[in-house]
Amino acid sequence: MKNWKLALLFAAMPLAFAPGCDDAADADKGVEEEALSADGKEDSFFRPTERGALAFAVPNAGTFSADARFHAWQFELTDDAKVTLTTAINTANLDTVMYLYTREDSNQSWGRYIAKNDDHQGNIWSQIEDNLDKGEYRVIVKAFKKAMTGSFTINGVCDGPGCPTAVDCDADKVAEIPGETDFDAACTAKVLAVLETPVTNSNSRTFTPFQDKCSFPANEILFGDHYASYWSDYGYGDLLDTYGWTVDDKEDFEIYLSVHQHGDAGFTVHSDVGADEDGLTFIYDADLNPLTAYWHNQSPIANVFCGEGGEEHKMHEDCLSQLMWLAEEVKADGNRESGTVETGLSINDADDLRVFAALEQFAADHNLGDGEEVTWSRNGGLRLTLEAGSLSTDYVVGDNYVFMVIQDGKAETICKNLE
């Protein structure tokens, strides 16, 4: 089998670590704060910022802040390989600590770390080098002291038949957005899967895509590319020309990127360049396929990429905008709310406008007259479940919109405004 070698961008002296071993700490700098436990039982408590797949042969950037003190990347080996992971410090007086975990399949937890390094050969940066077996791996980088803030990169080299394919990144090119489609049943299912999944991690950054984008995770490279290409693909280049930012202006074109990860379901991503009416919000599935784009301006525009040629569902700009705002309220705490209402309820007597909106639609869907008792419940997510006797339907609703109807496991977008 052919061996692949992904080279580091700088030379570093390797140092091997047996699983579970740590290098000796510098007594002068004190004790590591918020150290991850050797048995792995407390690691989930720290909820690291998930950075996605580790890209070998290019720097993977991270920034420690009060809200992001732990950064995690993952990689998978399809066979044996020798892996070296090294941090580079970009902020004075920053000191990194690196942990490596493994699991044999996705059904297992990460467990205890198998390697750890604080100061590689007395330096304040970290390095782990090991011969690894086939499997999934996770690397977490944290600061030695929790008050430390600043930027760093993690660089990886992989040598062996199990190495991942290197990230294909060209700073002078941008990935194109796929062609538009209708919003159909397939779109409804894909969008619902993302938006009803709680946001598990958020990350934001500003970067110049034509200069330093290749130092960022592969998913963020794609998100930035799609923002940059949107304007030329859809003929809106004049808007950015007005403010002096164009895709051709490679020195000054800075993109602000805000990424929200919805568990394993996908991402919502907001991008802009700091001008007026230049904001775009994309929804992506777990495979990084764009589902929709929403342009925030006085005459908002929604673009759809997720259709598969099925029956068209109703979707428009205001509906998509409100649906994405509603997704930010999705909770993962599992607290259940419930109650009982009667059909024919006046809006002035409604305690919950969203329950009222769903009730109106439920009565219409099932031809219920006034005075019928209906039970409602929700579990911290987008869905409201309404039941009356043997009748049961789920709804995705806002204060004045019924977005989706879910009956017998099949979802339909109706975007009905109740005003």
Describe the protein in words.
With 419 residues, the chain is mainly beta. It has 3 domains: 157 residues, Jelly Rolls (Sandwich); 143 residues, no CATH class; 81 residues, no CATH class. Helices cover 14% and strands 35% of the residues. The protein is built from 5 helices and 22 strands. The strands form 4 sheets. The chain has a 6-stranded antiparallel sheet with strand order 11-12-13-14-15-16, with helices on both faces. β18 and β19 form a beta hairpin. The chain is elongated, with a radius of gyration of 25 Å.
Tally of strands: 22
Helix percentage = 10-25%
Helix-strand topology string: EEEEEEEEEEHEHHEEEEEHEHEEEEE
Q: Report the uncertain regions.
A: 1-25
Quick check: average pLDDT?
81
User: Given the C-alpha coordinates, what overall shape results?
Assistant: elongated
What is the alpha-carbon Rg in Å?
A: 25 Å
Characterize the biggest β-sheet.
Answer: 6 strands, antiparallel
Quick structural summary:
The chain is mainly beta. The chain has 5 helices and 22 strands.
Q: What labels would you give this structure?
A:
six-stranded antiparallel sheet; mainly beta; 3 domains; 419 residues; Jelly Rolls; 22 strands; 5 helices; disordered N terminus
Write the layout of secondary structure elements.
Blueprint: E1 4-6, E2 49-53, E3 60-64, E4 70-77, E5 81-89, E6 96-103, E7 115-117, E8 127-132, E9 135-143, E10 150-160, H1 185-195, E11 201-207, H2 218-233, H3 237-242, E12 255-262, E13 266-272, E14 279-285, E15 290-296, E16 301-304, H4 317-327, E17 337-342, H5 353-365, E18 373-378, E19 383-388, E20 391-397, E21 401-407, E22 410-417
Parallel strand pairs: 2-4
Antiparallel strand pairs: 1-10, 3-10, 4-9, 5-8, 5-10, 6-7, 6-9, 11-12, 12-13, 13-14, 14-15, 15-16, 17-18, 18-19, 19-20, 20-21, 21-22
